Amino acid sequence: MLAAGLLAKRAVERGLSVPAHVKTSLSPGSRAVTHYLADAGLLTSLETLGFHVAGYGCMTCNGGSGPLNEGVGEAVDRGDLTVAAVLSGNRNFASRVHSQVRAGYLASPALVVALALVGDVRTDLESQPLGVDRDGRPVHLRDLWPHAGELRELEERYVTPEVFAPDHTPQPAWEAITAPHSEVYAWDETSTYIRPPAYVDSEGGLPVLRGARALVAVGDHVSTDHISPVGAVPAASPAGEYLRERGVRDFNSYGSRRGNHEVMARGTFSNPRLRNLLVGDGDSGGTTLHLPSGERLPVYDAARRYTGDGTPLIVLAGRGYGMGSSRDWAAKGPWLLGVRAVLAEDFERIHRANLCAMGILPLLLPAGRSWSGLGLTGREEFDIDLSLVRESGEAHVMADAIGFTVRADVRSAGEWDVLLAGGTLPFLLRTMGAPQEGTA
Question: CA–CA distance from 14 to each of 10, 131, 132, 147, 149 (Å)?
Answer without folding.
Answer: 6, 10, 8, 18, 22
